[in-house]
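=== RUN LOG ===
request id: a7f3
mode: sequence -> structure
chains: 1
length: 325
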Amino acid sequence: MSRQHAPLLRWYRRVRRDLPWRRDPTPYRVWVSEIMLQQTTVATVIPYYEKFLARFPDIRALADSTEDDVLKHWAGLGYYSRARNLRKAAQQMAGVFPTDYDAILALPGVGRYTAGAIGSIAFQKPWPLVDGNVARVFSRLFGLKGRAKDPAFLKSLWPRAEALVHKTAPGDWNQALMELGATVCTPDSPSCGACPLASQCVAFKKGLQDELPLPEKARAPVPLKWDCLWIESGGKVLLWKRDDSDRLLKNLWGLPEKGRVDARPAKRLATPTHSITHHALRVELRAAVLKKGSSLPDATKWVSRPRLTDYLVSSLWLKLLNAST
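=== RESULT ===
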C-alpha cells in the first residue's frame, strides 16, 4: 500500500459528497453519470441525471428508446453525440453490462478514463483513471510540470495512476482522487490546509501550488454567424434537420437557415449570442414566409408549437423560442 492510500481514503469516506450515482453504483448508473460528466459540471449534471434515470432506468429501457426521446431527455446538456452513443451502446449490450475491460472500452463513447471509472467503481476492478482533476492532483503532489488538459501530459500520468490504484478499494481510491481535485486541489486557490496529502505534496512544500499545473494555453473562440428563419403556418412551425456535414449541432432538428428553404425573410425577431464548443455564435432570427410554389427538402418537418421542445433540444433553440413568443 502506498503512503498516500490511507490518508486519502479516510478523508474521502468522511467528507465525500452525496451524489445520486454514488448511492447505488450499478454499472449502468455509473456509466450514465460518467458520460454526462464529460465536459459538464456535477451541479449541472445532477438534475439531468435524475430525470434521465427516471425515464431510462436500465439498459433495456435505453436500448428500446427512440433517438428523439433520448435527445429530449438530454436537452440542455450539449455535446449530443454523448446521448446518441449511450443509446447505441445500450443496444449493443443485450441487457447485460460487460465486465471485461476491452469490451467496455469498445462501447461507443467510452474511452480509457470512462472504462477505468466504470470498472473500478461498479466492479471494484483495480483499473486506473486519469482526468483533469487527477492530473492536477498528480502535478502538485509529485511536482510535475505540465498542463492538465494537454493530451501528452495526461498520457504520461497513466503509468503513475496504474501503480497507485488501490487493489482492494479501487472505486473509492479513484473517486477520492477526483473528489480531491474537484473540492480541495482546485485550479485556483487550492485549500491546502484541508488537504489530507499536504504533508506529502511537493508543490505545497515548495510553495508552487499556484504555479502547478502549468496554465492552459488560451484558445480564442471562433466567430460564427447563422441567419435562421421562423416560418409559421396554421399553428405549425417549419423545422429543419441538420446533417453530418454541419460542424455544430449536427443531426439535430433546428430552425432552417437562410438558403436551406425557398423563403422570403421579413421582420427581425432576435439576435442572440451563444457559445458552442469554442465557437462564438451570433444568430439572427427573422420571420419568413415560403415563396409560392416552393418545395421543401426532405429534411424538414412542420411541428405544432406545443411540440417544438420535443424536437428543438439545444439550449440555443430554446433561446430563440423564448425570443419569438
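=== NOTES ===
The radius of gyration is 23 Å.
The chain has a mean pLDDT of 93.
=== END ===
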